[in-house]
Structure formats: structure tokens, C-alpha cells
Amino acid sequence: MLSRGFGDISRGFTLLEKSMGLNASRVWLDRELTAFGESLPEGCLVLDAGAGSQAYAPKFSKQRYESADFEQVEKKYKPSTYVCDLRKIPVEDGRFDAIVFTQVMEHVPEPKLVLQELHRVLKPGGKMFFSAPLYYPEHEQPYDYYRYTQFGLRYLFDETGFEIGEIRWLEGFLATVAHQLRHMRGRFPKTPSGYGGGIVGVFLLVFFQLFGLVARFVSPFARYADIRKRYTDKGLPINYMAILTKPVA
Q: Which of 78, 163, 234, 239 is buried deepest, with most CB atoms within 10 A?
């Protein structure tokens, strides 16, 4: 029993060391996309909508994979099958058996029109994996337009004809804590005047600089905890995910 306990502790520290540099949201997204890919029949046709660098193409190695992106952001892309606006994908109705639409909808100015188009190109009975942020800094400016609550997502999915299998947190609350701690620690004011000046300003400056050091230490432990267990009882997620189906008429 004692050796087993030490073994568990050793494995725990090994995972902790590996997870220090990991992003818990990306870990959970990787896990969820792996499960989605494994749920699809071999040889079926998958569209990665807003694929960018096509980082998740290997998840669909047993399927046929196509990608669509407008390729306008200053970042590295892999050549897309379709270079297009996602409001108008140049394919026939019902072409795809499945769609991956992950971490993209915050970047489209008219999300309802994009969802309508994805619904059009998906076969009846086809499934779509979706994720989008609720809490995240602006990024890929100026192409960053929205953040989504679960209720806003339900409204949009209902309005565009999707059947909602599930909507849930992508990661747990401790990932959100880790994200907040990591981003806040270098952004506190660095002079007493940033806190209103005077003796109180000096005290607050010292306090928040010390708190920043604590945040730097605690953040990786929060990431590690979230990678081990997705805690969703309280708090808020960074992202929501959903599994959607196009109903069979």
C-alpha cells in the first residue's frame, strides 16, 4: 500500500511537471476532438470550418478531410481546400458528413449567417463539433467580434435549425482561474499613482506586486488541477462546447 501511495505521488508530480507549460483549454479541446473523431465512421467527409493551420487534421486521419478559411489574419495557414467567407462556402448542399467549427465563431461578424451556411452544407443526420469563448481576451484583431453565453448559443442553434445534443463547459473553472492569474500578474499598475497615490498607493503597489508573484506560482497548479479534473459545479468556463446534429427531414 505504501509503495502504491509513493507511486501515485510520483506519477502525480510527473504529470504536474508536464502540465506546467500546458494550456488546460487546449488539453480539453484535444481530448474532445479526439473523441469526436473516433465517433465518426471511417471514410466519411469532414469539413474543418475556419481551419487556420489545420492543427486538428490528424484527429480525422481515418476520415476524408477538407478545410475552409478566409486566410486574412496575419498568421501561418496551411493551404485551405476552400479559401472563402464562411457565409458562402462553394460546395453543394449536404456535402459533408461532419463539421468541426471550433474557436472560430467569435471571429465572424454575422454568426447566424455562418451557422445557416454550415447547416446547408451538412448532410441530414450529420454532426458538428462546436466551441467558442465566453471569457477570453481580444485576439486576432480586428477580427474579434463576440463572446457567447450558453443561452445565446442555444438561441443561435435553434434559429439555424440545428438539433442540440449537448452544450457544456469545454474546460473547468480552475482553468479559468489559471487563465486569470496568468494574465493579471503582469498587468497591475507599477507606480503608486496607478493606485491613487499617497501612502495608500504605496501600500497597494507593494500588495499587488506581491500578489502577482503568488499568482505566478499558483497558476500552473490550477492548470494541473483542471487537467486532472474538469470542475464545473461553480464559476464560469473560458469556452463552451456543443455537439450538434442536422435533423433528418
A: 239
